[in-house]
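Kindly inspect this chain:
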Amino acid sequence: MTGPQPLDTRDSTLNVALGDRYSIERELGRGGMGTVYLAEERKHARKAAIKVLRLEPGATPGSDRFLREIGIAARLSHPYIVPLIDSGEAAGFLYYVAAYVPGGTLRDRLRREGRLSIADSVRIAQEIAAALDYAHRNGFVHRDVKPENILFADDHAQLADFGVALACTPAESGTITAAGTALGTPEYMSPEQASGDRDLGSASDIYSLACVVYEMLSGKPPLRGSNARATMAQQVTVTPPPVRTLRPDAPVAMERALSRALSKDPSERHATAIEFAAELRLEEPVVGRRYPAATHAVAVLPFVNASSDLENEYLSDGLTDELIDALSKVEGVRVASRTSVFALKGKPQDVRAIGALLGVSLVLEGTVRKSGQKLRITAQVTSAEDGRLLWSQRYDRELEDVFAIQDEISRTIVSTLRAKSFANLEQTPPKRYTESVSAYGLYLRGRFALNKRTQEGVSEGITFFQRAIDEDPKYALAYAGLADAYSLLVDYRSVPNTEGFTRAKEYATRAIELDETRPEAHASLAWSSFIYDWDWPKAEREFRRAIELDPRYAAAHQWYAFLLAAQGRAEDALIEGHTAQELDPGSVSARRSLAWLYYYARRYERTLHHLESAIAMNPTAEETYRVLGLTLAIDGQHDEAERVLREAVAMPGAGSYTAGTLGFALGRAGKSDEARSILAGLEAAIEREYVSPVALATLYIGLGDNARALDWAERAYDDRRGWVAYVRVNPLMDPLRGEPRFAALVERMRI
């Protein structure tokens, strides 16, 4: 609605028609269902709000809806619903009269204050929840719960405007606004409402109320796109950030209640609005909920390098990794993954916001200063629930004491958890894989370089791991690091697979020979066996062994999911993929992998959902845009696919895969000349460098040239590209499935 206006002279007819009962003073606002005026009821000398619909020729749908709104308002008598006083028809107008609520709207208050106190937010939520519960029990879904429709009378909230309400009982379904129409306000629409679902229930209003509560706490709706259509798409596909990332002082239980009420699946939300409001004010989580408890969880934030020499950062990062690993061995404690915590490196945040983001109750942070052979390490533990400092300590030691310091800090964390009533926690002393401080330092440098996830970083990591092995030839972790590095070398260099995977298998096998209990080595060997050797039984054995050794090792679940997907075991793959994402919620890779799994399962709506989440986590990851463009193209959304892929090819790191995918999308959209121009560029590049046959096969599929596509698919088989492992399930290859050569290729894969 627009703001207050003087009375329009053209409505003088209305003034005359109602003049014996009401004195109309001014316009309060306009909306899709009519105009609202402030008036005074002459008989009782009280203020009233008159909502008026001018009857135009042929305006039957609007008048029918308006009459239905009057009918609903007349039947809903509740302290927190704006009451109906009168209604009727006069001089070509339909009107109804409601009590005037002088305290303004929640929108007015949010404009003034930005966000509300937690106590006020909960109180308003309780009052509106009571109104909604009453409406739901009487068979109506409001469908437009938003700050503009929440008014204040004597500081109490009242729900107004049932103009787009929907009957949710069979007896009423024919007499209220038709279902299947996305009426409402995009920022507060439930996913099912945004999708035009014809079967809206009370859960839709609960979602909308949760959006309002989220905005009261944070100052903005949970989701908002660049326009109405984009916002509605986000309601269907994007998970909003936890409210405590924006409002750290919000209680943990409140965040859990909001997370549940904002579930994309209506069946996962609260049964009633009253239940949602009650859970908002709980001090402890409700027993038996499906969301994960955070009380056994700790995050080790990246320790800060306080040395003047930036080269010492490997030591602060390495100490962080070692503490994560040590605490992960403690039964009964969940530790936030490395990916999740390192995503926060260099981004100072309130510890309560970190707790909300990572789902933890304790945060360990500290600094490392190295000067010669001297170390000064500070560490502190803080409660993520209320920000209280629980423990802090400073260590001044020699570099050779680094192992003892790690042990002491991890023991302190366990003691702190025990003090918080987890007395049954058991800590196994961490296993040391070398006694050489020099080899250990080189290993940390190798991991530091490898974690850069760049071509230069991978090459540098290989050098440091090899030097660590020179210092200690029996250092199993260094061999496992080499195995990972050579596997990544294939991804970060445009080279044939043979050298990278041969060495990856060699070093993983050596790590296992030295220590069979290292899950990283088994997972690395499993990945090479799957994606390069296509030895399905061996890959499955090694993945299962890695998970058996460490069920919380997210990468093993993530990679195993791809093996299962390639074999057509879609549901099992999705279970493993979701497990990896839950274990490592801050990992863009885990989220993107989940999107790939839904893509192979041909559930494109969920694919797009997870890709949107991955982009929100890292807007510069070129691979995510490539997968998004591919999915959109296969789903027939050609214009959007082209837009996304043109953006992707302009990003740093874009290569032949991305160019080939853009060519595929252009070919599918009928833009063959542009696609062939890209093809010519790729074929010319073959004279200068290795171009993956996957890019050319993909492009030829888009052009509909199955014979040439199969030529390059067979070349991909000869080059042992991992793309061929998904030959049974990749929707991209559907146009080839009737070809005898394709059937022979599937047969050769022995899937």
Q: What stands out?
A: The mean pLDDT is 83. The chain is about 50% helix and 10% strand. The CA atoms of residues 143 and 165 lie 6 Å apart.
